Amino acid sequence: TIRNSGGKIDSQTAVMPAVFERGRFLNSVVTAQVGKGINTGIALVNTSKNTASVKLVLRNANGTEFATHTTELKAGNQTARFIDELFSEINFSGGFRGMLEIETVDEGIISMGLLMSDGVLTSLPTHHYGTWSN
Questions:
Q1: Is 34 exposed, middle or buried (0-12, 13-18, 19+ CB in 10 A)?
Q2: In whole angstroms, what is the distance from residue 35 CA to residue 57 CA?
């Protein structure tokens, strides 16, 4: 959302979140970067009536697994965290570029990427694809 000096909205953009559906989409990916003035994150919502388990896989630019984090999301709950919060055991002082993979076998998870760049928060689309490897 961009507002003019009077506070009125001049323009606004939005990103459609990705919805995980049983038998169709079980994986999604978003670009990931951590560095000076920049951090990527993920927002997750569980729209189902059951607790869902979501595995987050941080991969480097070559696609090699760098770190994993699994979280459970109770029915109707949501969470949003940045990479340095999800993977707090990792020292990102040298920066990081790669991708964040979102995996679940539970239906009802909705995901959307987040990007904080120089204090400005932006939403990023997540992209569905097949399994990373067979």
A1: buried
A2: 18
